[in-house]
Design goal:
Layout lengths: L1 H32 L19 H18 L6 H11 L4 H23 L14 H24 L2 H53 L15 H15 L4 H21 L15 H35 L14 H19 L4 H10 L4 H25 L5 H29 L3 H27 L1 H6 L10
Helix pairs in contact: 1-3, 2-3, 2-13, 2-14, 3-4, 3-14, 4-12, 4-13, 5-8, 5-9, 5-10, 5-12, 6-11, 6-14, 7-9, 8-9, 8-12, 10-11, 11-12, 11-14
């Protein structure tokens, strides 16, 4: 066992070195070839046509990364940005929008494919919509605060903190996957010893005393409560509950509208608002306050809904949250921190929230599907902003969008078949851990290259209303 672990570590170390060397070599090739073709006026990067070796390498690397990421529902922005910078030669300012367009394509494919899937332990949608609507408002609010911190924090501090965060996150996620794997192995062993007898005995014990003699309904539950429970179960069976989708859509419209009202970059504010003015900060405060207000409203709804569930005899399963006055405050605050990290480091919220959900005890398939829905909202919001501000090189964006759709669909199909064949949900956790680990390596190389470049130092303004706003 010790020899196998040492061998695995040695192989992992060699793989990391190989990835780093290949990325740096391709990056140098990309920078050399930029002068050999016509360039885009906005980004300063060569146009897609004619396609060269660095383009092909970038597309292949992005597709492989997305196949891995698809199984865990993570967008993979932490891998894509370094690939587009180091392999394809884009400046970080324009690599991030391209990464977002790729992630958007993957998120659409993820959500579309997850819509058909059901919860592994209950007759309900795979996505935990209650968790989603509670997490998303404060994640967006945290990203807003983190974005401001990113403008004033030194490049070296951001790079070091990012690599440390990703390393710690990947380590905890992989450990979580190993625990789940061991738990599954123990369960398979127990089932092999007394599969049918033990399963029947447990079910009879769990339901003993809960069912009456003739109707199969919980004792003491009157018609009104049965009707309320039926409405809850009917809503949970829907792939897209209308009220929760409306809340998320409202946040999307609110965020996009306020971002456009503030203006930035090549897109001036239609109301004449300039960065740093009283109007600018008032609008920013209003956006932050609106997101917090939505979060508080969702909190009150979930507490009341949980009380109704308890009164109706709702059957909770493994991975479900019991929302009360404590948990509806604690978990959103953790999500706010995740949003701050996403905004500060310029990475997607999924790479933080996916492992966070696993840490909180959410089942891996549910965590992956819920994270994918969250990414769809955030990536659509960001894509709208990037397109409006003219930061997207469209010839690459169109191609990479479909790379995101195709690679994510392939990754989803492979992971679905793997989980179905083996019965191991821990592979989803391993997928998330692999993406975060790869992001750690690639973002680390990206940071080193950026710090070594005098040009990248000049681009950082060191102020909220510096260049690029």
């Amino acid at each position: 066992m010790m020899h196998s672990r040492r061998g695995a570590r040695t192989f992992a170390g060699l793989a990391v070195c190989a990835v780093g060397a290949a990325v740096l070599l391709l990056g140098n090739t990309a920078r050399r070839r930029l002068g050999d073709a016509s360039v885009d006026e906005v980004t300063g990067h060569k146009r897609l046509a004619p396609t060269d070796a660095t383009d092909v390498a970038g597309f292949v690397c992005a597709a492989l990364g997305l196949v891995i990421a698809a199984g865990g529902g993570i967008g993979g922005g932490g891998m894509l940005v370094p690939i587009y910078v180091l392999v394809m030669g884009f400046k970080p300012k324009f690599a991030i929008p391209l990464s977002n367009m790729t992630v958007l394509g993957g998120a659409i494919a993820n959500v579309a494919m997850n819509a058909r899937k059901r919860h592994p332990l209950a007759d309900r949608a795979l996505v935990d919509w209650d968790l989603l609507v509670l997490m998303e408002p404060l994640t967006l609010a945290g990203a807003l605060a983190g974005g401001f911190a990113n403008k004033i924090a030194p490049e070296l501090v951001i790079t070091v903190l990012l690599v440390v965060l990703l390393y710690l996150t990947s380590e905890r996620t992989v450990k979580k996957g190993l625990k789940l794997y061991a738990k599954e192995s123990a369960a398979f062993s127990a089932m092999a010893d007394a599969r049918v007898a033990l399963d029947d005995a447990e079910r009879q014990e769990e339901t003993k005393g809960l069912l009456d003699d003739d109707g199969g309904e919980p004792k003491g539950v009157d018609d009104e409560k049965r009707a309320a429970l039926g409405r809850i179960l009917a809503e949970e069976r829907r792939a897209f509950p209308p009220d929760k989708v409306a809340v998320l859509a409202g946040m999307f419209v609110l965020t996009v509208a306020m971002n456009l009202a503030k203006g930035g970059g090549a897109f001036p504010s239609p109301f004449g608002i300039e960065c740093g003015t009283a109007s600018y900060w008032a609008l920013t405060a209003a956006m932050f306050g609106a997101l917090v207000a939505i979060s508080l409203a969702v909190r009150a709804y979930l507490v009341k809904r949980t009380e109704t569930k308890d009164a109706c005899g709702y059957a909770y399963v493994e991975g479900d949250f019991h929302w009360d006055s404590s948990t509806t405050l604690k978990y959103p605050c953790v999500c706010f921190f995740a949003g701050v990290c996403a905004g500060l480091f310029g990475i997607g919220g999924g790479i933080v929230n996916g492992p966070l959900m696993l840490e909180l005890g959410v089942l891996p398939p549910v965590a992956g599907a819920t994270t994918a829905c969250m990414i769809l909202l955030t990536s659509t919001t960001a894509a709208t902003t990037f397109l409006t501000f003219g930061l997207v090189q469209l010839d690459y964006a169109k191609r990479l969008f479909w790379v995101g759709v195709g690679a994510t669909a392939v990754g989803q199909l492979l992971m679905t078949r793997l989980v179905k064949k083996t019965g191991r949900q821990s592979y989803v956790a391993f997928s998330i851990g692999a993406v975060v680990s790869l992001s750690t390596v690639l973002m680390g190389f990206h940071g080193l290259v950026s710090l070594a470049s005098d040009a990248s130092e000049e681009e950082r303004a060191g102020a909220i209303c510096g260049k690029g706003d």
